[in-house]
Amino acid sequence: MKKTLNLRSMAAQTIEQVVEQGQSLSNVLPAMQHKVSDKDKALLQELCFGVLRTLPQLEWLVSKLMSRPMTGKQRTIHYLIMVGFYQLLYTRIPAHAALAETVEGAVAIKRQSLKGLINGVLRQFQRQQEELMAEASKHESRFLHPAWLLQRLKKAYPNQWQSIVEANNQRPPMWLRVNRQHKTREEWLALLAESGLEGHVHPQYRDAVRLETPAPVHALPGFEQGWVTVQDASAQGCVDLLDPQNGDTILDLCAAPGGKTTHILEAAPKARVLAVDIDEQRLKRVHENLQRLGMTAEVKSGDGRFPEQWCGQQQFDRILLDAPCSATGVIRRHPDIKWLRRDRDIAELAALQKEILEAIWPRLKSGGTLVYATCSILPEENSQQVAAFLAHHPEAKLVETGTPEKPGLQNLPSQEEGDGFFYAKLIKS
User: Fold this and answer.
1) Cα four-point dihedral sign 404, 244, 202, 326
2) Most C-beta atoms within 10 A of its C-beta, which of 15, 81, 370, 426?
3) In the predicted model, is pLDDT for residue 168 greater than 90?
């Protein structure tokens, strides 16, 4: 039987769906991975993530080595060539194997007549690699970010934008959250050391541990029993600020996939938690997370702008609003964000955040706590959003997170730290 599955062509098709059709990588990739073995799953993921991480540089190389772009039905070949470049530049795959498999990719997508073209371009790149990469190192594409986003980062962070871009282009560290209902962080770290892995505590977030080297979840002591969860350190900061107490009625709004819902219940197992999200599909993950950790919460599908539809006139002691945002703080985990977002999205997202915040504030009891959070690093969605809210709500008091002039705490992504994240803690007087 002729082998028709070719990982390089599958990667090219996946990348094409993200870049050309605006599909999310987390939606497209699993369907492709479903067709291949576990070993091949990892390589397919590496090729897709890697090409999307380095896309501007690979695009620039294609433009240097091809006189005209591949269009229409040949477009997949454009991405297949990029997959070839990525392997030669960034992986340990032997060059001859990378070349042969990439050229064969044309057969799998029924473009056999273009094998010679692909082979020619990749070999030409090999011959000219040194001078091409020297030239590329001076070109704007070296930052691996779209121009509109670079512009916004330079404006918001004139002294830090380069370190932000650098952090975005790295592979993310693996952060875990130790379930304090089962083990203290120190007890669990001792078990981790016994299993031959090394972990580092976060100085600020009480449950957070960073693995020295990422590991599969089945290698983590007690993962199946719910002793530990994979969650970025910055995301854990939300619940530390919310400070949930037993007996509280708590709303986790925009809750999917459920990491913060379960963290609330680890901190306050006797709290009554309502987890709400607009995306029915992603709510399945909330149920899965609750089930793995043996927890109970009320889970509902609903739009944050219209709370009366899903909670009537109910009021809450604490509200965690992890608002829909540009996700510019988690690019290293989701490199497709750079190519799915558009400059115009930022104003639209800021308007949506304002609507949700205004709609949900009346649901907070007097004396209650609301934590507004985003995984964005753009001021329009963060400090500016909260400043505008405070100006219109004298009954809202900012605590523990900045000043009324410069409201909120902004984490920036960095190699040893968590993702980019923003928090503002408000008390209703």
Assistant:
1) negative
2) 15
3) yes
CA distances from 95 to 54, 263, 343 (A): 19, 46, 38
303 is in an annotated binding site: yes
Q: By the 8 A CB rule, do 248 and 314 touch?
A: no
240 annotated ligand binder:
no
Amino acid code (one letter) for 185? R
Instruction: Tell me which residue has tokens 């509109």.
Output: 148
Would the annotation count 222 as a binding residue? no
Any bridge partners for residue 402, and if so which?
A: 407
Look up the pTM and report it.
0.94
The average pLDDT across 194-213 equals 97
Nearest to 326 by CA among 374, 363, 265, 263: 374
Query: Which one, of 88, 173, 167, 164, lies nearest residue 128 by Cα?
Result: 88
In this prediction, residue 48 has a pLDDT band, given cuts at 50, 70 and 90, of: very high
CA distances 320 to 86, 119, 181, 310, Å, are 41, 53, 21, 16
Tokens of 226: 């719910």
User: In angstroms, rounded to a whole number, what is the distance separating the alpha carbons of residues 193 and 195?
Assistant: 5
Chain Cα centroid distance, residue 273: 25
Q: How far apart are CA 321 and CA 310, in angstroms?
A: 15
Query: Catalytic site residues?
Result: 375
Q: What stretches of 254-375 adopt beta strand conformation (E)?
A: 272-277, 298-301, 316-322, 364-374
**In this predicted structure, what is the pLDDT of residue 39?**
87
Cβ atoms 339, 327 nearer than 8 A? no
- How far is the C-alpha of 90 from the C-alpha of 152, rounded, in Å? 28
d(CA 76, CA 85): 14
The reply to whether 243 sits in an annotated binding site is no
Contacts of 341 (CB under 8 A, 6+ apart): 146, 149, 326, 327, 328
Asked if 178 contacts 227 with a C-beta cutoff of 8 angstroms, the reply is yes
Altogether, the residues listed in the chain come to a count of 429
**pLDDT for the residue 4:** 57
CA angle 377, 394, 363 (to 5 degrees): 75
